[in-house]
Prior knowledge:
Two copies of one chain form a homodimer. By secondary structure, chain A is of the alpha/beta class. Chain A has two domains: 18-87, Winged helix-like DNA-binding domain superfamily/Winged helix DNA-binding domain (Arc Repressor Mutant, subunit A, Orthogonal Bundle); 94-204, 3-Layer(aba) Sandwich (Rossmann fold), CATH 3.40.50.720. In chain A, 44% of the residues lie in helices and 16% in strands. Chain A is globular and about 60 Å long. The structure holds nicotinamide-adenine-dinucleotide (NAD) (2 copies). One nicotinamide-adenine-dinucleotide (NAD) sits between chains A (99-105, 126-128, 144, 162-165, 167, 171, 186-188, 204) and B (107-108, 110-111, 113).
Amino acid sequence: xxxxxxxxPATRSRGIPEATVARLPLYLRALTALSERSVxxxxxxxxxxxAGVNSAKLRKDFSYLGSYGTRGVxxxxxxxxxxxxxxxxxxxxxxxxxxxxxxxGAALANYGGFASRGFRVAALIDADPEMAGKPVAGIPVQxxxxxxxxxxxxxxxxxxxxxxxxxxxxxxxxxVAAGVTSxxxxxxxxLTVPDGVDVRKVDLSIELQILAFxxxxxxxxxxxxxxxxxxxxxxxxxxxxKGPDGEVPAVMPA
Amino acid sequence: xxxxxxxxPATRSRGIPEATVARLPLYLRALTALSERSVxxxxxxxxxxxAGVNSAKLRKDFSYLGSYGTRGVxxxxxxxxxxxxxxxxxxxxxxxxxxxxxxxGAALANYGGFASRGFRVAALIDADPEMAGKPVAGIPVQxxxxxxxxxxxxxxxxxxxxxxxxxxxxxxxxxVAAGVTSxxxxxxxxLTVPDGVDVRKVDLSIELQILAFxxxxxxxxxxxxxxxxxxxxxxxxxxxxKGPDGEVPAVMPA
DNA sequence: ATGCCTTTGTGAACGCGTGCACAAAGATTG
DNA sequence: CAATCTTTGTGCACGCGTTCACAAAGGCAT
Lengths: 254, 254
Ligand SMILES: NC(=O)c1ccc[n+]([C@@H]2O[C@H](COP(=O)([O-])OP(=O)(O)OC[C@H]3O[C@@H](n4cnc5c(N)ncnc54)[C@H](O)[C@@H]3O)[C@@H](O)[C@H]2O)c1
Ligand SMILES: NC(=O)c1ccc[n+]([C@@H]2O[C@H](COP(=O)([O-])OP(=O)(O)OC[C@H]3O[C@@H](n4cnc5c(N)ncnc54)[C@H](O)[C@@H]3O)[C@@H](O)[C@H]2O)c1
């Protein structure tokens, strides 16, 4: 999970646990797929498999929203899609601004799945004067000077930061001062925000490092098992060259 | 947090809790910044602020790695950088392949922070024959047909999937069959993998939906507070037009 | 109408993660 | 060398999240 919230200690957001909120979009995606295949109802077990979670967890999650299921039958797909959408606030249209239209910002602007679920790219903002006016994904880039006006005019409350790390905190402060209360941060920095502002971060580098940790551990365990004469569990083909870059696994030589 | 692991029930990865592992890269980043400023030592309190966490949590996290601090003084920055790097497996060089060189894949390939910490883009792979041979970020794109050979030749164990959702599971299976045991997935799908393979996902859409949930809740609470005659907490300027797109907040009209 | 079969909704137990608070450790100063 | 001051390392309690397991609910067949 390339994510983490900031501030706001307790959960109790109208009683729905934070962990549940984080899974609702997952259920919604699975349900939307079922809806497109015109499947009328689905059991907690089927839906759980589709969403990649435990079925008891899924039922408990839904129980926070109310009793929308029918015992012996399951859940009505359309009805559940509506209920979850409403709970997540997706029945409204959320204007979003993206700040920092470089490699990543441009990719985000071009991302189709953005608009698909109630989010609309209201503006693209960059500090580079060269970029001003140039269209990216059909939307002209605007200069940072316009930031406050853009936020205000469009009633934007969600901002995406895709600037280099150095500028992120300052951009964040301007966004917040202008009225933004939710920020999705792609820059590798810890953002400091006042209470009442939500920050979520997506950090590629952290994700890779976490994977590397487990990868190293797997290589170590495997080496230890080989040392002990235990044959590697399965997949010994790939296993035999698992030390990355031809390096020796980080275990004691003797 | 745009993240979530799959499979592998218990933690106990050599005793280091998963939550701690997820924070180590954060500490490492803060420590690297200190190191570049030639700061010799740092207290848990200072470092905690820099990393945006509680200092007790930070100390407990470090205690899992061993006793690397000096009471009354703090932690030696250089030494800690080394210890965390080693623990995360960053003293090795990890070759990574990126599959699906579209908007996002190209941005990832161009991402500088990639190589900075032990990760090296070994190959770019795409199914589009038109792209084969074209250089992206200085690396020629190779066709999917070569996938197995590339993984094998380079000893790749970490793969990044940036294809459309439809192709992700199949790409995933080919990667795993070829020997990849860690996957970072950007496609909005639940990937099914065999035991022993780690999957982490980054899902922009889910992040935005979580933000929207809290945003809606804030708007609702505010409306309720206004109704009750209680003035909005702070920042009433921005608050007064918090209903997105000029819509009425989703509360009962009367 | 009655009984069976499926599936929900949730009580309860458990484990992980967090944060407080403090004793022990060590540096520093006189 | 002793006193003081700073900061670590951790015992402990608490709360959240997960999972099991099952009683209740409801559809459906006879
Ligand atoms: N490219 C990736 O795949 C990737 C992956 C993970 C994280 N990131 C992070 O995302 C951020 C952007 O990455 P990128 O590759 O797009 O970088 P980039 O250099 O291509 O783009 C950065 C853009 O931000 C603009 N900018 C700089 N300062 C600004 C400011 N104060 N206000 C507004 N705009 C400003 C620049 O003009 C530029 O257009 C970086 O922090 C990077 O670490 C990128
Ligand atoms: N662009 C974004 O900012 C963004 C954000 C979040 C998630 N995503 C997700 O990331 C993925 C890629 O997004 P994108 O905007 O780069 O899409 P894109 O259409 O620009 O690029 C997809 C690329 O994958 C290639 N491809 C398709 N099937 C393939 C296969 N089976 N094997 C190898 N390559 C294959 C295509 O040739 C194309 O080059 C999508 O799943 C999207 O939902 C993108």
